[in-house]
Design a protein that fits this description.
Layout: H1 6-23, H2 26-31, E1 43-46, E2 52-60, E3 69-78, E4 85-93, E5 96-104, E6 109-112, E7 118-122, E8 134-143, E9 151-160, E10 165-173
Antiparallel strand pairs: 1-10, 2-3, 3-8, 4-5, 4-9, 6-7, 7-8, 9-10
C-alpha cells in the first residue's frame, strides 16, 4: 500500500507553494497598491523668501503619480537682484532625508533618487534677475512605481550671493 509520510506531505506543500508563486503575475501585483488610492492633491507654501514672492505653483499631474514625469512650475516676482547663487533641494519622507543636494541656482541640475527610485531635474533660474522681474521656477520628477508610497516633503531654496533667498516647499503624496 502507498502511504504518505510527513516528509512527502511537506515536499508536496513546498512544491505547490513554489508553483503557485511562479505563476503569480508581478504586473498585476504592482498595478494595485492600496496606498496609491490615498494620494491627494499636491500643495505648496513659501518657506521664508526674502528676495521675492512666489505667487503661483502648478503641478502636472495633480495628484502626483508614480511612473510618469511629474512637472512642477511656478512664478513670482523678485524684490531684489539675484545675479548668482546656490540652490539646495531637500526631499524628506517623514523624518528621513532622502536627498539633500546643492547646485548653481542659475543652471539646470539633475539628481538621482536613492536606490534608483527615480530622478529630479531643476531648470535653474534665468540669471541675472533684476528687482521687480518675474522669477520662474521649474522641476521635473520621475518617481518609479516601486518607490515607497507616502507623503514627501520637498524644499527648494535658492540663496543669492548678496544674501537674498527664494524658498518654496512642496508636499506631495505618492
Amino acid at each position: 500500500s502507498f502511504r504518505k509520510t510527513p516528509q512527502k506531505k511537506m515536499r508536496k506543500a513546498i512544491v505547490t507553494a513554489f508553483v503557485a508563486t511562479a505563476y503569480a503575475t508581478p504586473a498585476v501585483v504592482e498595478e494595485f497598491n492600496a496606498f496609491d488610492m490615498l494620494s491627494g492633491p499636491a500643495s505648496w507654501s513659501d518657506c521664508g523668501s526674502t528676495a521675492g514672492t512666489i505667487e503661483t505653483v502648478n503641478f502636472s499631474p495633480n495628484p502626483p503619480q508614480k511612473g510618469v514625469t511629474n512637472v512642477i512650475s511656478g512664478s513670482g516676482t523678485s524684490s531684489g537682484e539675484f545675479a548668482t547663487g546656490t540652490s539646495t533641494i531637500t526631499i524628506k519622507m517623514g523624518a528621513l532625508t532622502l536627498l539633500n543636494k546643492q547646485s548653481d541656482a542659475c543652471k539646470p541640475a539633475s539628481f538621482n533618487l536613492p536606490f534608483n527610485a527615480g530622478s529630479v531635474s531643476l531648470t535653474g533660474f534665468e540669471c541675472p534677475i533684476a528687482k521687480g522681474q518675474e522669477v520662474k521656477l521649474g522641476a521635473k520628477a520621475l518617481v518609479k512605481k516601486f518607490a515607497p508610497s507616502g507623503k514627501y516633503n520637498i524644499q527648494y531654496k535658492s540663496v543669492a550671493t548678496n544674501g537674498g533667498e527664494l524658498c518654496v516647499e512642496f508636499d506631495l503624496d505618492f
